[in-house]
Design brief:
By secondary structure, this protein is of the alpha+beta class. The protein folds into three domains: 121 residues, no CATH class; 132 residues, 2-Layer Sandwich (Beta-Lactamase); 168 residues, Orthogonal Bundle (Hypothetical protein af1432). It is 57% helix and 9% strand. It contains 17 helices and seven strands. Helix 2 packs antiparallel against helix 6 and helix 2 packs parallel to helix 8. It starts with a helix and ends with a helix. About 1% of the residues have low confidence.
Length: 469
């Protein structure tokens, strides 16, 4: 007993125990912060994802057809219902994580909404024995505040909700008519089990890091108590950076001992979180790219336009010496540069002849529409600049902001050249395609006017080398 007291009265043991308990506390706090941040961040990203899906899907619905659906049970036999139902089914196929896609319209009573089109009136959804929704059937929307708010703009449930159709997380967006009046709301539902599965992955990872932190804390306290304080501060700083959404931050701890192993585990955890976020972003890109392909598929003259512009822009950026990561970002954004055209009527896009002033105003608004649609989920300002500024001119006579010269993002300058070349060498409804030689001549003639001479020079090198094939 006396020997035990003597051991625990040792200053070194006290310091070691203090460090062990301190490290344990820091690791527990770090794990809790990262866990809560990851859960909240993932849930917010899911909500944003549902909002953007609902918003882009709403833009693809024909308001005239939707308004023509009879709000009776026999309405399912109308041509309008069948066309809208086919469109909703297509949206669901493009987004396999969705459980339901449907449209409703508010009634005179705030809480009593009415179904217009639910593409599963015959209970053909993933879950059997669910209620059936026919046109005109009423629905108590007061249980879903986000749904009622959707008449003002895109929204999503703040928590997992339940109703007759099951337990889901839902997003909503308004559908506008030609007079910019809300005529209905489109809803998309994700099954709760899919959300819970994502949470379980983060929970398992958090438990693993927590247990690893306890073990490493004990080892560090026993063997290097005199040096551990400074290293803990680095780990705490790493925790703050991760909690601040800086997943690229790396904890630098020199050596080959347990503390450096802990730092390495921390960096791997940060990398894993960054990769998880990248996976969600990639999923978003695939969704939007699918919508772009749907848009281009309606017009044989523009099929493949976005893909070709993206490839031209990527190769040109490489030729200009931009880092590969930046080149990849340019390619992704270039694939989405015309997303704003989803909001433009096909009659304007496919018009075989000159546009009037009102139609030009609508066309020139598509960069801002695209930027506003992507801003909630696209985190990179440089990538957003491509969506907004790809129609700016080097002489300042472009739109929407009239930027000139170096005030235009180099990303947007590159996409402008690629976009101009592909437009000139593609047949359109209002003119035949130019030859490659004539298109190159036009590019050179517009250097310093519409286009950057530096970018045009790099693009022509790419063409001459055959790198865009």
């Amino acid at each position: 007993m006396a020997n035990i007291k003597r051991i625990f009265s040792s200053f070194r043991i006290k310091v070691t125990l203090a460090i062990i308990f301190s490290l344990f506390f820091v690791m527990a706090l770090s794990n809790l912060i990262i866990y809560r941040f990851s859960i909240n961040s993932q849930f917010m990203q899911l909500r944003d994802q549902l909002k953007i899906i609902a918003q882009t899907a709403a833009l693809s619905i024909d308001p005239g057809l939707l308004s023509g659906v009879p709000l009776t049970k026999e309405g399912v036999n109308s041509n309008q219902y069948k066309l809208i139902s086919a469109q909703l089914q297509k949206i669901k196929r493009v987004n396999p994580s969705l459980e339901y896609v449907y449209t409703l319209v508010p009634s005179d009573k705030a809480s009593a909404w009415r179904f217009i089109v639910d593409p599963n009136p015959d209970s053909s959804s993933k879950r059997r024995n669910t209620p059936t929704a026919y046109p005109g059937d009423t629905y108590d929307a007061s249980r879903f505040p986000a749904m009622t708010k959707a008449v003002l703009g895109p929204s999503a449930d703040e928590k997992i909700m339940s109703d007759e159709w099951g337990v889901t997380l839902s997003g909503y967006a308004p559908i506008f008519d030609k007079n910019n009046k809300v005529i209905a709301v489109l809803g998309v539902d994700m099954a709760a089990q899919d959300v819970y599965a994502m949470r379980r992955q983060i929970n398992d990872r958090a438990i693993f890091i927590f247990l690893l932190g306890i073990i490493v804390s004990i080892i560090l306290g026993l063997f290097i108590s005199s040096r551990v304080t400074k290293r803990i501060e680095k780990l705490v700083e790493g925790t703050r950076r991760i909690a601040g959404n800086d997943f690229d931050y790396k904890v630098e701890v020199m050596g080959h001992d347990e503390v450096s192993e802990l730092a390495d585990s921390f960096n791997k955890m940060a990398l894993s979180l960054r990769d998880s976020r990248k996976m969600l972003q990639d999923y978003f890109y695939r969704i939007v790219q699918s919508l772009i392909r749907i848009l281009e598929a309606k017009d044989p003259y523009t099929q493949g336009h976005s893909e070709r512009v993206a490839e031209y822009a990527f190769r040109t950026a490489l030729e200009m010496g931009l880092p590969l990561e930046k080149c990849d970002s340019i390619k992704k954004a270039a694939q989405l540069h015309d997303i704003g055209k989803l909001a433009i009527e096909e009659a304007i896009l496919d018009k075989n002849g000159p546009l009037n002033d009102a139609e030009w105003k609508i066309i020139r608004g598509h960069p801002l529409v695209g930027e506003n649609a992507l801003k909630p989920v696209l985190f990179d300002e440089e990538m957003l600049s491509i969506i907004r500024s790809h129609h700016e001119r080097f002489d300042g006579k472009g739109y929407p902001d009239g930027l000139a010269g170096s005030n235009i993002s180099i990303f947007a300058q590159i996409v402008s050249v690629a976009d101009a070349y592909d437009a000139m060498t593609s047949t359109r409804a209002y003119r035949p395609a130019l030859s490659v030689e004539n298109a190159i001549k036009e590019l050179k003639n517009n250097c310093g006017l519409q286009l950057s001479a530096q970018v045009v020079d790099a693009f022509l090198k790419v063409l001459r080398a055959g790198k865009t094939a």
